[in-house]
Write a structure and sequence with these properties.
The chain has 148 residues and is mainly α. It has helices at residues 10-53, 59-103, 109-121, 126-147. It contains four helices and no strands.
Length: 148
Amino acid sequence: MNIKINRIPRFMQAEMAQLQSTLSPLLKKNMKYRLLSTVMIGFSIINLFFLLFKGESLPISKIALGIYALVGAVGFSLLKENKHNQKEIVKMSQKYMLERMKKSNYLTDARKSNYYKRVNDQPLFAMNVFFEFLSEEQQRMNRSSHEE
């Protein structure tokens, strides 16, 4: 979730920074798992390939075969955990967005429920919906401050 913060309006930058700070521990863990799993899987596949097709059947080869298979299995389990963490990141970001929408005092309940529905129905476009929400909220804030 590494969004270029300098390309969005200032009123959205604070929200994005807050969202990123909420998600940063899980994002860091996810990046470490992804890197480690990729290295482990690549290492085991390359070594298994050479070990199996090299043609020698020494007793040490069977031990090495087991070790490389174990390293590959651990790598695939880390990859699976990475996918689980990605789903958790989506849930946490969606939860943050919905709570933030709930806190808004500038939008009507009907508009808020429309945004809730769109975030829940289209999780892939939740960030776009959140940006729309923030833009509309900012417009209403500006209108209300001009009226006073």
